[in-house]
């Protein structure tokens, strides 16, 4: 996978648009004069004050400078030019225009209470990663940026085997709606290898969820750009079509080497046997919406093998009026076809979305 660029892409056509309301007066702040003193990060023994919009933070400049050369330069300039009358509580004051919530997420990592400066599944979510990545473009948070983009690229992987085995979710697993933010971050960092998986996850949402967007904790509504929303909705239609074709093909008939033979149902026999009857019964349940996943689902990368395994027990066979499940030959045939067809959809994702991702689907692409 390509090294993510640390500069914004020049093309704004894929950027997410934001509806930015006023900064919320949350429980973490309290009024103090013109600005709002942040309860969590107004440290009594701090030695630098950062005013961000209408929120003030008092923190340790040395620890911030250790992780950002930009912060270090800001402090040197502020300390050198500010008269004592311009300072507050004897501390230099730096004016910022970043989101206070983004800064707060960063400070929780830099000024930890109970753990070191390292992202783990216990302290990350899509908003923490977003805050670090957005702030890195201004403050050069090299180490944290590498960790954040690593988590993002690991889940929204470019490796089919990692996706199919779910090892991409071993360290963290965002909610499907968070794919909207992932697409924005992929655009921001110029990391196109994240886009196919992120678009796929986004396309599994309902059309209304895709259009309404994702509301972050700071009240910002993050939506796909007009072009990316069009791509996502078109992709959803194509995935529904692909899923329908795959399902009908998989459940159509048993293997040519089937070792069982279906027997005709008689008036005296309430159930039928054989692989064809088994596949037909499951397809009927799928078509009628008896599964949580229907025939017209956009989940074209989801395997049907777990469904086959679930209905292979004696108890569940009775639910569908059968006596036997698939024979060994048909089960192997089904599993191989299932994997082959899902991999084919995976390899086609960039084309289905309408984007180009160099190396996508190649055997040497890694998560």
Description of the molecule:
The protein has 367 residues and is an alpha/beta fold. 45% of the residues lie in helices and 9% in strands. The strands form 2 sheets. It has a 5-stranded mixed beta sheet with strand order 2-3-5-4-6, with helices on one face. Helix 8 (195-203) packs across helix 10. 37% of the residues are buried. Residues 1-33 and 262-272 have low confidence and may be disordered.
What descriptors fit this protein?
about 375 residues, alpha/beta, five-stranded mixed sheet, three-stranded antiparallel sheet, 8 strands, disordered N terminus
Strand and helix map with partners:
Layout: E1 17-19, E2 29-32, E3 35-42, E4 48-52, E5 55-59, H1 61-67, H2 69-81, E6 93-96, H3 100-110, H4 126-139, H5 142-155, H6 160-165, H7 179-188, H8 195-203, H9 207-212, E7 214-215, E8 221-223, H10 226-250, H11 275-287, H12 305-310, H13 314-319, H14 328-353
Parallel strand pairs: 3-5, 4-6
Antiparallel strand pairs: 1-8, 2-3, 4-5, 7-8
Helix pairs in contact: 1-2, 3-4, 4-5, 4-7, 7-8, 8-10, 10-14
